[in-house]
Amino acid sequence: MKKLLTLISLVLILSIVLSGCVSQASPTPAPQEPGGAVTEPAEPGGQGRQQVEVFSWWTGGGEAAGLEAMIKVFQAEYPDIEFINAAVAGGAGTNARAVLATRLQANDPPDSWQGHAGQELIGTYVAANQLEPLNFLYEEEGWLEVMPETLIPLISQDGNIYSVPVNIHRANVVWYNPAILEENGITMPTTLEDWFASMEDLKNAGVETPLAMGEQWTAMHLMETILLASMGEANYSGLWTGEFDWASPEVTTALEHFATALSYTNSDATSLTWQDAAQLVVNGDAAYNVMGDWAEGYFRELGKTPNVDYGWAPVPGSDGVFQFLSDSFVLPVGAPNRDGAIAWLKIAGSQAGQDAFNPVKGSIPARNDADRSLYGEYLLSAMDDWASDIVAGSLTHGVVANDSWKTEIDTALGLFLQSRDVAAFQSALVAACASSGPCQ
Amino acid sequence: MRVNREKVISFLLVLPSIAAVGIFIYAFILWSVRVSLSQWKGLLPDYTFVGLANYIGLFNDPRFQIDIRNQAIFTVLFMIGCLIVGLALAILLDQNLKGESFFRSVYLFPMAISYIVTGVVWRWLMNPAQGSRLSGLNLLFDQMGLDFLVNRWHTTPYWGIAFIALPAVWQMSGYIMALYLSGLRSIPQELREAARVDGANEIQIYRHIILPMISPVTLSAIIILGHISLKVFDLILAVAGKQLQLDVPAIYMWQTTFDGYFFGRGAAIGILLLISVAVLVIPYLRWNLKTEESL
């Protein structure tokens, strides 16, 4: 009897172990040839329908609602393709990108995934030969005519366009509290020097926090807008292509400007999220906050009124430049359902898809032929700027630098926030460009 | 024959776990060592051998120096805090007071909470906002007239990491109390009585009899706390997010590997962490094995 029990338990344990091995091995589908037959062999129990699995980090708030709206447009257009929403929660996609990296290494790519347009995608996935160029789609769909000319190089590498931008956010925006400025007789300054002078006045007038800032990434956000405002668009853009020297005196001046700005920020910055920091402005605790224009959606959520509870302007010195970031979708090499993925990209780049997504998410379409009646006051002003301004890319949000370079800059920035040593910061930035950027 | 069969069966029974541990722990340790000696950066594996370059780079890396300093401050404060609070609670509970089991559970409960939950709660308590936006413990201090206690908590320059030890001690000291309590209970009552007969006062009894007798407990507690402290990661992230000021090697490893794709460097940090844990744990395991053999 005892022997029998031992044997049974042995068999059970072995079967558990074996089933563990099997179920780990099976979900990896054999990678299909690009352009090959799209219909997957019907799985037992499946309906034999086409599928498209789209991976994103849009799981909450306006983002998730916007994605749902765009999925509806997709399903109306392609009723035969089943949409699988493979969204992974986690702020700004940190978790999602780790999950995606694991899936890619296991050779199990989703059919399309979300990524910040620009070098974040190109430096990581194009460098690993995981993305197909999309020039053919841009030509077929006529997207080159409806998207700004200065945008295309920022989302391309060697003439190949690698993603379809769904939305556009602006990074170089100052949000201000109109009441505080009025009380102190300040009109929104247009140069960095005047801006800093106004902060000095505010501080002397007893405003505890002239400039609100949050955790470390919001410091990087502030830094990139000040680099742009201080150096001008051409020099700023040159930093990221290797044409402008990080060791130059212009960078030193820009970093000194950044250090000046930091001296007016709140002492508890490191414990605040971007929402906390932005909220200080509309609550009357701070005069200015530099944040991307998703802050506007947040202010609306708080029930605040544009131009009454908050005003906005380009970061002083960067007027006429639209520092953008964008969520975009890609076509992986070996997408299990390539035709489904292309259908999704067509919707993502279409007027209908973008007009479904953006009003809900609180961003503007990458296309300049949107239906203006759908958008609020701030977004309309952003659309006008998008159509007329020069386009520059954001660092914090993945347009101008690949992830490795960006984390090296982030480390240098973290050290600088503690030491406030401009010279050391600049030499760390020079080293970062040499080790992970285009400077050799 | 029968003995042999039992041996075979028992070997077969442990085989799955040996295989699982062998593959999922030891094989991956070896693989990590290999990765840490490579220049792998980016999504595509690149096993080009670069020797100890990653390790040398780390020791010249100002960020890693901050990490080591933060880790050291945290570990020392966390250990001392847990040992003192744990021992004090254990001695109090050992006085045969009423409702002892109730208090024992109360002090042990924090251990059942995940570090993330503790971190979020303490993030609110240790709100460093100043001026008109006082909140959390600072607001409490302010309203009680204890203004001098209002401080910047974990955002204090240089010493910020010390305040992270606070929630960690809050969470783990109950566990140390339980360890000490079982140690105290194992000391025969006759010893204390004999000491009293010899004229020793209570302090002398603790100092010369009880504390030396529970020193093995202290050793185990240090080992356990030491390796917990090296793995602190979730707590810091929950309290402060990704701030270089409160960086420790575990956070650097995660950020550099998954945000920056420096797989070689990340693996090197992982191996260094493994070595530090091993330095703590291996002597303890050997000592444990010896005492077990001698029993």
Question: How would you describe this structure to a colleague?
Answer:
The complex is a heterodimer of chains A (440) and B (295). By secondary structure, chain A is α/β, with parallel strands linked by helices. Chain A folds into two domains: 187 residues, 3-Layer(aba) Sandwich (D-Maltodextrin-Binding Protein, domain 2), CATH 3.40.190; 196 residues, Periplasmic binding protein-like II (D-Maltodextrin-Binding Protein, domain 2, 3-Layer(aba) Sandwich). Helix content of chain A is 49%, strand content 14%. Chain A has a five-stranded mixed sheet, sandwiched between helices. About 7% of the residues of chain A have low confidence. Chain B contains 13 helices and no strands. Chain B is flat and about 70 Å long. The mean pLDDT of chain B is 90. Chain B has a single domain, classed as MetI-like (MetI-like fold, Orthogonal Bundle), CATH 1.10.3720. In chain B, helix 3 packs parallel to helix 7 and helix 12 crosses helix 13. Chain B is mostly helical and 295 residues long. The two termini of chain B are 31 Å apart. The longest helix of chain B has 35 residues. At the A-B interface, helix 1, helix 3 and helix 17 of A face helix 1, helix 3 and helix 12 of B.
Summarize the structure.
With 440 residues, chain A is an alpha/beta fold.
| H/E topology pattern of chain B | HHHHHHHHHHHHH
Spatial extent as radius of gyration of chain B: 24 Å
CATH superfamily of the largest domain in chain A: Periplasmic binding protein-like II
CATH domain class of the largest domain in chain A: Alpha Beta
Q: Which residue ranges of chain A are poorly predicted, with pLDDT under 50 across at least 5 consecutive positions?
A: 16-47
User: Strand fraction band of chain A?
Assistant: 5-15%
Head-to-tail CA distance between termini of chain A:
74 Å
Q: What's the total number of strands of chain B?
A: 0
CATH class of chain B: Mainly Alpha
Helix percent of chain A reads: 40-55%
